[in-house]
Amino acid sequence: MKKALCLVVMLAMVASASATVRVFITSSAGGLGLENPANAFVPTISTVYSNGLNENAYDYSDYYGAPGPIRPGDFPAVDAPSGTADTPVQVNVGEGQFAYVWLQFQDEVKGSKINGLLVRVSEVGSSDPASNLTYNWYLCNNMGLPQPTKRWDGNATPPAYPEWHNNPQTFVAITAYGLQNTALDAPWNLWDGTGRYALLGAINGEADMKKYEISIINISYASGTPNGLAGGVFQFVPEPASLLLMGLAGLLLRRR
User: Fold this and answer.
1) C-alpha angle 99-102-108 in degrees, rounded to nearest 5
2) Structure pTM?
3) How confident is the prediction along the chain (256 residues), in pLDDT tens digits per residue?
4) Which DSSP string do the residues of 158-227 spell out, in sequence order?
5) Burial readout 45-78 (b: 16 or more C-beta within 10 A, e: otherwise)
6) Is beta strand 141-142 parallel, antiparallel or unpaired with respect to 149-150?
7) What number of other Cβ atoms are within 10 A of residue 244's Cβ?
């Protein structure tokens, strides 16, 4: 009996140790991200005032079901790589690609719900926020629907929406829904229940070949207990032909 009890405790410890919430990026190539990538840098079409009043809160669809601009396309494979400093996820901006940002619950307790999040992007080896990139984060505001739902609280001021283009970016859900680890798809919340993925936002930059790290700096739960946190590494690269020319130029310079 004691041996059996010990085994149960050990298995519980293993499960807890492997439970992780990670953030990472993928390239916009291949249909990943929004259904219409032209809307990737639109955080919301709504206005949210400081008193919490929502106007035009139809990011996913309107009251009659007409499509809104912020709708999900394809989600990454369940084992999509996070990237490391040695093998970063590459985004080929020479072919018009940009980066989508994802959050994934990995082996977390079902029903766990995030109500606070702080995400930062910095160059690898630095803790300073990278200021040379363009950031966009999705509010997912659908308070105008028959069943009102919104991912995050906070002001949203058109037309520039400065509250949703920051680095680091703070996400808070006090009365909003937040992000819940559920097997049910929630397209209004850009959520895939199979891979337990949430589409958080999008990032763009120039082909500078720098390596950037995206990290969760802080997190809080409305339900459940936070376990491990993980980030990813990515870089913006030129089109393959440009890389080849750069390599040849380097060889010529060395031969001289």
Assistant:
1) 160
2) 0.87
3) 333 333 333 223 333 346 899 999 999 998 899 999 999 999 999 999 999 999 999 999 998 889 999 999 999 998 899 999 999 999 999 999 999 999 999 988 899 999 999 999 999 999 999 999 999 999 999 999 888 999 999 999 999 999 999 999 999 999 999 999 999 999 999 999 999 999 999 999 999 999 999 999 999 999 888 789 999 999 999 976 444 444 444 444 455 5
4) TTT-GGGS-SSEEEE-SSS--EE--SS-BGGGTEETTTTEEEEEEEE--S----EEEEEEEEEEEES---
5) bbbbeeeeebebbbbbbeeeeeebbbbbbebbee
6) antiparallel
7) 11
Structure tokens, 249? 């130029």
**DSSP assignments along 36-60, one per residue:** SGGGTT---S-EE-TT--EES--SS
As given in the structure block, the two tokens for residue 22 are: 């990670």
* Two tokens, residue 225: 């207990």
Separation of alpha carbons 56 and 212, rounded Å: 35
Distance CA(188)–CA(140), nearest Å, equals 7
Helix (H, G, I), strand (E, B) or coil at 236: strand
Is residue 111 within 8 A of residue 182, CB to CB? The reply is yes
Per the CB < 8 A criterion, the answer to whether 139 and 43 are in contact is yes
